[in-house]
Specification:
Length: 383
Amino acid sequence: MRLKNNIKIILIGQLPPPVHGSNVMAALFTESLQKLGHEVEIIQKTFSRTMNEVEKISFLKVLKIFTICYQLLQSLRSRRPDLCFYFNTVKLRAFVVDALFLLILRFFKVPYILYSHGKGLRHMGVRSNPFSRALVQKTLRGATGALVLGERLKEDLTPYLEAKRLFVLPNAIPDQTGGQVPSRPQKNPTVKILFLANLKESKGPWEFLQMAREVAAKAPQARFIMAGPRVNEDFYRRLLDFIAKENLEALVAVPGGLYGADKERVYCESDIFVFPTYNEAFPLVNLEAMQWELPVVSSDEGAIPEVVMDGVTGYIVNPRDIGQLTDRVLRLVHDPELRLRMGKAGRQRYEEHYSIEAYRKNLAKALEYFNGFFPINQGHNVT
């Protein structure tokens, strides 16, 4: 059976702000569904407007739950959607709210497909108390299927859904280069090494600074940029104290959050991108770096090894292994031809797999795939 292009879809998720991977992808997902010809209504599951509000409980957030329930009920009664895509959380406390919204969908017999942008569901359904385990298992097993970001992330959902009900839909980003990446001088007296992400402990800025200390001792031409908005003041102060204690002030720039033209400029001016995260599913920053022809050194976490090809577009290192991280960065610092070759390979990989065009093709395949074992809107949209 072939899927027509007028499915009525409810999307429950959060659009920016705040700006982070899941929210950015929710916006792209919505636009892509519409470009494919489907009717999409967004019900915003927005509880935080800034990164500092994330994971904090407040009276307004509790009140927002009832507001979203009301909006969902109104939509289900008036539009009678064929399908819901649900951006689920991987934190137990927030998942209780997910379970409520998904219970409403089941009551109205609306099939839902999860769109999982993190990892932790497997452990959440095992390590929690008996009531929470039952809630997690019932909610997840009630899904028609799920979109995951990489093959390695399927294992997070296989305790609840058959593997055939999981479809890999990698993240994507628009091309900010206009297809014209400025060439980098090969005989530049300095080599700039960039970290760009929220300055949150799990993103790896601490590991980046420890690597910077070791690399600076062996490669005096190296310079470091640790860019990103601060999230926790105490942690941010620890980072600055480390820079001062190790006498790295002249070598490490800390410009804060960079956006728009400033962000593009720092990618253009850098030579190597380093993202030593240890709790990530599919970070968009690695795609951004590949887009700007930067070799990427990142962690063996989530779907990252499916994006950054070890030895081809950069290097994959063990999380928190400062020695290995330092070694891979030094290889790139000392070999400009290797940097150029890996950067161009990364750009090609971005164009083929992680461009907006590639994303929309993959999304169309996902809808056809789910329709193959669950005909979406049997009476209207399937021929």
